[in-house]
Specification:
About 15% of the residues lie in helices and about 55% in strands. With about 220 residues, it is an alpha+beta fold. The chain has an 8-stranded antiparallel barrel with strand order 1-2-3-4-5-10-11-13. A two-stranded antiparallel sheet has the order 7-8.
């Protein structure tokens, strides 16, 4: 219900902004990656559509296991900006099609793998695959500076500071056993430890449910 109300509010704000004659584009970079956006509206209310993307690789390690994480950030945002003082400062409310996800690969240490704190040899593990995803639709709340459709100047500076409420990560992982332990209790133990390791990884990354958004960029007004 909350999501539906937010969608209706955004649609109403975009409809109001569409009647204004100001249009601008902007490019930005920050914690959501590099993006391109379109804005329309007035000095007091604007609607924005933006696309941001980036990727990075890092290692997540603890006593329960080691994983290489290939993270891909990809968002399409529908944002409404309100300029309460008619200047450059704004507050922003939005809804984001959240494509943030990660592919997980078990990282070996001296030829062994660790799942749920249990060490297995390379011959014990046939294959491993894992994935981390977030809520596909996420609200955004923030503040910023700069109006891409301001008529006072053609080029401008824009910035955003806010939070993307993308929910706690959901981790799924599966493993097949190597020939050495296939069909044995050790194989069942391995698969149980892989599942438990995924649960632990979810807990380790739970703070990502509140993703900080910080970006700066340049805008051009038509």
């Amino acid at each position: 219900m909350k999501t539906k109300l937010l969608v209706l509010a955004l649609c109403g704000s975009f409809a109001a902004a569409a009647h204004a004659d100001g249009t601008g584009i902007y490019v930005n970079g920050g914690t959501t990656g590099f993006g391109l956006g379109l804005a329309t509206g007035s000095n007091n209310l604007t609607g924005r559509l933006s696309y941001d993307t980036w990727s990075r690789t890092f290692t997540q390690s603890n006593s329960k296991g080691n994983y290489n994480v290939d993270l891909k950030l990809q968002n399409i945002s529908a944002l409404v900006d309100w300029y309460p003082f008619g200047g450059a400062f704004r507050t922003t409310l939005g809804l984001v099609a959240n494509g943030n996800k990660a592919t997980l690969t078990a990282a070996s240490v001296n030829g062994t793998y660790t799942f749920n704190g249990v060490t297995y040899t390379a011959s014990d593990v046939g294959s491993y695959s894992g994935e981390m995803k977030f809520n596909s639709t996420a609200p955004y709340l923030g503040i910023g500076w700069g109006n891409p459709v301001a008529k006072a100047k053609t080029w401008g500076f824009v910035s955003d500071i806010g939070v993307l409420f993308q929910g706690s990560p959901k981790v799924t992982s599966t493993a097949t056993c190597g020939a050495a332990i296939a069909g044995t209790q050790a194989c069942t133990d391995l698969q149980n430890d892989v599942a438990a390791g995924a649960t632990q990884l979810e807990s380790d990354l739970k703070n990502y449910k509140y993703y900080p958004v910080i970006s700066i960029g340049l805008s051009y007004h038509f």
